[in-house]
Amino acid sequence: MPFSTSSRTVFVSLLAVLVLVVMIISYWSPLTSDTFHHALSGLSHEFSVSLIWERCIQSYLTWNPRVGEYLAFIFATAGKGYFVCFNPFVILTLSLLMFYMIKGYWCKGESWADISLWGLGTLLLLVSTARPGVTLYWLSGATNYSWAAALWLGFLCFYRRFFDANAPKPLSFLGSCSLVFLGFLAGMTNENNIPATWLLLGGLFFYCRLIKRQHLPYWFYAGGIAHILGALCFLFAPGISARMNSESPGCAEPISGIAECLESIPSLMLKMHTYLVIAFFLSVSLIFYFIKSKNWNWNSSILRLSTVFFITSYFMALVFCVAVEPASHAMFSSTLMFILGTMGLLVYWQQTSHSSLFSSKGIRFSCFIMLGLLALTMYDHFCLYQQFAWRHEFILKQKEAGELHILVPPLEPMAPWNAYIYWCDIDSDPNGYVSQGAAKYYGVKTITTAPIVPSL
């Protein structure tokens, strides 16, 4: 489709709306749980490179070697305001990387077809990835999941060009250095990203060498080696052993033996598909349509690419059964891969029907539902923000009055139908993980919950 000034204007406006929405929800996301511990200088937010470096080394040796953990230390110590300003652009970048992984070029808003695909992919990212309230908007969760996924996809985007019909263009020296740097960081993102990357790159190697008989450039191997080095630094970190030997390794339940491994599979599939209802509906509907209309053509490169993403998605979810049954938010990268597969099917529908995506009633209905879920997510975050803002002021007033053992009210429960937000909150145990972190953050002896608390 030819370039359209109006389409470019609409695309830029949508980018601005995305940035604004993510910025607002990030601002409303509460400062709680891990973030209390990540804010190394407490309420003062005094940035110290030496303190952050020391804590990163300690985390690598004793608990969590993820690169997202180090980013959490940096932004929580500097202050939530920096995260609120930075996070929207990471999510924006992630949405553009998703588009690139499917189409092989950047979305510049030059056609309505590209804009509609990017828009649908972005909506799926915001509402169909695992626990968006934790993985997209919360400081400690976003750095460990969506930011890590952006690094991971950024690395994989270098290899996307091998799916094109033409031979991939050579990388410049700067591009090769960027690939090696991102490859190493991608190896230190998350546990299930590592085997998924090896599956993808290994499959790509055999596809290019054995099927296409294509000579692979040096940077293909350089990026793979960098990723392996990063993965080895991650997998053999002392913190991994300490974490796995703890009673509850990062909100996960340890698995031992083949019987427990097999028993965990239904639970893993349920956790993955809980947030993929809309993406799953779209994918199944499109596949059924292609089969019914006899438009299913395995020679289509986009169908093969979509299949690769679906296989990788389920592989990433199932690989957890080797060691742990994770918390739902650990499924973020798995759900992200599934969404990429769905976007591939949408592109194939565009190619075969020669119609706009929004000409389909099913797609329009899905967009309506996703926009409603996004609005509900914003509303619930706003309700949480009001409670946490009141609590924050109350704690400061109590501290100013000389009180060092502070009682705060528990949060009002959220609507049971909304599983998009999950927070570990302060409880009645002063030795609890969140309660200890909150007391240290505010500089008092204890902060616990009580059923009745005086008003301000």
Q: Structural class, judged by helices and strands?
A: mainly alpha
Biggest pleated sheet: 2 strands, antiparallel
**Which strand order spans the largest sheet, edge to edge or round the barrel?**
1-2
- Mean pLDDT, nearest integer? 88
Assign a percent range to the helix content.
Answer: 55-70%
Number of helices: 19
- Residue share in β-strands: under 5%
Residue windows where pLDDT falls under 50 for at least 5 positions: none
Helix and strand arrangement:
Layout: H1 5-28, H2 34-38, H3 49-62, H4 67-78, H5 80-103, H6 112-128, H7 132-135, H8 139-144, H9 146-157, H10 173-186, H11 193-211, H12 218-235, H13 238-244, E1 253-254, H14 258-273, H15 277-292, H16 301-318, E2 324-325, H17 332-353, H18 361-400, E3 405-408, H19 433-442, E4 446-449
Parallel strand pairs: 3-4
Antiparallel strand pairs: 1-2
Describe the model:
The model has no long low-confidence stretch (mean pLDDT 88). The protein has helices at residues 5-28, 34-38, 49-62, 67-78, 80-103, 112-128, 132-135, 139-144, 146-157, 173-186, 193-211, 218-235, 238-244, 258-273, 277-292, 301-318, 332-353, 361-400, 433-442, and strands spanning 253-254, 324-325, 405-408, 446-449. The longest helix has 40 residues, at 361-400. The strands form two sheets. The protein has a two-stranded antiparallel ribbon with strand order 1-2. The chain has a two-stranded parallel ribbon with strand order 3-4. It is an all-alpha fold and 456 residues long.
